[in-house]
Amino acid sequence: MSRQEPLSTPQLLELGPKVFTPNYRQLPVIFTRGEGCHVWDSTGRRYLDLVGGIAVNVLGHAHPMIVEVVNRQVRDLIHVSNLYYNEPAIRLASELQRLSGFGGRVFFANCGATANEAAIKLARRYFRTVVRRDRFEFITMEHSFHGRTLAMTAATGQPKYQMGYEPLPAGFVYAPFNDLQAISAKISSRTAAVLLEPIQGEGGVVPAKEGFLRGLRELCDSHGILLILDEVQTGIGRTGSFFAYEQEGIKPDIVTIAKGLGGGLPIGAMIAAPKVAEGFEPGAHATTFGGNPLVCAVALAVLEAIEVEGLLDNSRMIGEYLLDGLTVMRDDPKLEGVVRDVRGRGLMVGLELDGVDCRQIMTQCLHRGLLVSVAGTNVIRFVPPLIVGKGHIQAALAVLYEVLIDVVKERSQRK
Fold this sequence. Notes:
Strand content: 15-25%
Order of helices and strands: HEEEHHHEHEHEHEEEHEEEHHHEEHEEEH
Largest sheet: 7 strands, mixed
Structural class: alpha/beta
Distance between the termini: 52 Å
């Protein structure tokens, strides 16, 4: 087979499983282009995308600002390494410092997992080199998710992600989410920080209860430990504010972001309070691609578009519209016994189903031209581009309703 030889869709679908490691259960579709909230497959069929690359494509597909910046920056400078400064990285770090609200220092990574790795390493080093105390343990939440590196697999409070990788790195203990008393009981002289997501994504789109983050901030302060927020999925306007923690009126010691920051290009960032950032010094931590000028230039365009296009307001407004529509579905007598719960914030919403194979629902939606994803074991997750409109949501709800009605019919036929 020549590298230039065109392959048909059936040929590509046959070749795919033979060339990749078997990490994913990919659906039998090959996407070739996108625009706005839609993507097209290799047969020319159009799909409404409410997955957004799993909360990545915050500006949708082929946004003009991203296209323009990519074309310009590729001609100017793609990569130089962290041996030198580059303007896009400096400007992006300055913007993130401002948006964080606590004057944080920025470390650029490649993704959410590596941003979280940086946060863990910094917290340990901060206590050993600045505070001069040997605090090395982290309290994370049951049903959490923090990435796929070995340390982040250990930090993730879900055994299914840990099976087969033992022995895992030590230093992580787990507590129930939304339970201040249980977390307090886990704090010891070894504890360096509490690490958690403001909304558990892979755990089933479970938001922190009102007041929980404020109580956790007070708890960490009273014990002299750090509060680290993993906003890899909730950040960049996903919940209606740039950071989810803003809605609780608190500031973390460290926050991590990724996913939507690059608008489709890979980037992560750790933002640490200035005093905590003193735990790092030259050579203490590094990454080859962090602060890449191409990706940083695109991230700057993403931040500008979010502000210029009013996407924080849109996230709140359309998120409420989606929640209302799913709530109507939950209360529909025709779907009794199928929909258990609806929850979320902004454009991060979960529909919990009862006794239903969510992957089957995802597949049936795909066949009808709608892309949704699964979180946890029984939750349909909606994390669409922040540019999504009411018309898109109406179309998606109509498709989903049809699929769930079919589930009800199948159940009645089996009885």
